[in-house]
Amino acid sequence: MKKGNYFFPFLLLFALFFSSNLAFSTIHTINVSSNVFTPDNLNVIVGDTVRFQWIDGFHTTTCDPMILAGTSHPIGADPWDAVMSSGTPIYEYVVTVPGTYIYGCQPHWPGMSGTINAGFGYKLWDGEGDGISWNDALNWFGNTLPSATDSVLLNNEFVPFTYVVNLPTGAVNTVISKIIIQPADPNFIYLNLTSGNTNNPGLTVGNSDSLNADFLIYERGVFQNQSGAAAGLGVNVANSKDTIKIFNGGQNQSGAAAGLGVNVANSKDTIKIFNGGMWVHNTGRGTSGLTNKLSRDPLTAKGIFRYDVPALSAFSITASGLVYGTLQLYGSAGGGGLMSKKYIRTGTSPLTVRGDFYIQEQAYDSSAMTSGSIFSIGGDWSVYGKMEFSPNSNQSIRLNGTTLQTITGNLSTFIPKTVEFNNSAGFLFNQSFYIDSVRMTSGNINSSMGAWLCVGYDATNPGTLIRTGGIVTGQLERWFFDGVVSDSLEYPVGTSDTLKLAKVRYTTPPTVQGRIGIRYFHGNDGTDLTVPLNDGGFSVTRRSNAYWNLSSTLLVGGAISLSIDGNGQTGITSGSDLRVIWSNDEGMTFSLPGTHVSGFGSTAKRDNIVFPFSRFYQAGNSVINPLPVELSSFMAATIKNEVILDWSTSREINNSGFD
């Protein structure tokens, strides 16, 4: 049976409520104009802020019986008296004591007056009834059900563990002013509109306050909309601005049989899914009345909108001209196998995902979006299902975040469109991606765990690469056809701050098509060859410690021309005499494949290389292109106004300038 008394000292209970209310405080605006306060009767909650906003005239807002007789405030509350004019257009008062406040304007009293009624306001869940049913009054602190004007707070102040609250079943509409779900770590709190509720709507949330959210879901808070209504909205959120706030870790799951499942009336910035919060669209109904209202507040950039639509049939998501936080495509609710749930995107206007774009392994993304519909991704890009594009789709993808963007997926992710890399913070591939066309605008591209970026991958998607900025610091692969002499393909590889451009061209066509990959490995200084090489009378005795590692996949036959640019390498004196040498045993022994071609600047070239694998180095000798001399010690001392240098090299060749 419900207990009728509580052993909470009043001051402790007051502090408990007041601390809760401060976390969810609301700003209420009262306009001051035309000798009237608007509104002149206001209900607030302890912890809220009342903002007086001057519009015209000369007025005061005064709640102090010592200054303006007839005004009053609760015992313990601070009085106020403020001039309202163009010079001081705003005055704010934080309500800290419950009760009635009567205030007015000194020049226009008593005709210009108003009343503020302050209370604790929130209905709290204590679960002392059956512990689960919304319509069991004994589950609510005070033993009364929430009314249409109440604000509900579901937290762990009375129930210190995870719990579930089920809204009424049947043809019932539960109406409240505001709802907040805020579990305490590590608990979860679930509010469910179950499939047993057949009313349209089954839950209505909202009030006349258009400046503040009515539905707030904090971390580990979950609202599940599984409405069983045959048509309509399932849930009606009536307010017009910032109505739904889903904070870090919060979730909303929609499952209405028809309609949208959730109705939000306003057309812009109405639904705020804060970073880490989640909205799960778990119904076959459309989303065109919802997704166009997602907030673009920076704090919502990582707020998750997840599509996990039941049934295996294809589902069209709203995409054209929309801005999401994080967008996820799931297929688990459909119950199918890998890549069984198809999500279709259409339209001609850009799609923007400010956070991450994630495709789960049971889902796949199918785009028919056309010209002008750039798909911008500001966070990580994960494709565990697949992405496909209709023949008439010419949509491009733009990665344009502001922090490092990680790219990962399954073992064979193919993107037959243009992908632009435009993020100065850079990119990291954790899984190999095959992309038809790459545009490098800004930011370095790295790879890990054996992954690579491949530009081009078959006869239909041969691959193009346009670079205006950025360097590939990981593995870059490019596609070459069989039976034809290729163009010279660029590999903009190097270190994080220095481009070490490589170029490959098939001068003798391969008999089987495939790809060549290149990765640059930086090394300081140079090293003498144990066994000198003779290249048509030119003595090669020294090589760089940096090298370009080439790999070949599928290719058979043919011969390549290779050029490698030692941009920034010291010790290069003649590009025409700079050699390319090759090692197939990790730099132990070296040879001269193919024939030398005069280079230029810091670029070395070689033709007719028939075995394009392993390490390629730049090389010279102690006179021409000596590459860096290595100092084993260098010291300086001052004696009687003279500087005495003491130095030694690690080898006794190429000491020019030191003797």
Could you characterize what this model shows?
The protein is 2% helix and 42% strand. It is an all-beta fold. The chain folds into 4 domains: 10-119, Cupredoxins -  blue copper proteins (Immunoglobulin-like); 162-502; 517-620, no CATH class; 631-659, no CATH class. The strands form 10 sheets. It has a 15-stranded mixed β-sheet that branches. Strands 12-15-18-21-24-25-28-31-34-37-39-41 form a 12-stranded parallel β-sheet, with no helix packed on it. Strands 10-11-14-17-20-23 form a 6-stranded parallel β-sheet, with no helix packed on it. Strand 53 and strand 54 form a beta hairpin. The longest helix is centred in the N-terminal third of the chain and has 14 residues, at 10-23. The protein starts with 9 loop residues before the first helix and ends in a 10-residue tail after the last strand.
